[in-house]
Amino acid sequence: MTVVYFALYRKNHFKTKEFRMQEDTIEGFHCNVQAPFEKAGAEIRMTDAKVDFVFPEVPFPSNKIFATMGAQAIEAMVVHHHTLLRKSAIGELFPSDDAVFAHVTHKTAEFFIEALGGAQDFSTQYGHPALRERHFRFLIDEKARDIWLMLYKKTLKDIAFPTQHLEEFWNWIEALSIRMINRRTTFETPKRYPFASIAHEFTPKG
Amino acid sequence: MTVVYFALYRKNHFKTKEFRMQEDTIEGFHCNVQAPFEKAGAEIRMTDAKVDFVFPEVPFPSNKIFATMGAQAIEAMVVHHHTLLRKSAIGELFPSDDAVFAHVTHKTAEFFIEALGGAQDFSTQYGHPALRERHFRFLIDEKARDIWLMLYKKTLKDIAFPTQHLEEFWNWIEALSIRMINRRTTFETPKRYPFASIAHEFTPKG
Question: Which ipTM was obtained for this model?
Answer without folding.
Answer: 0.85
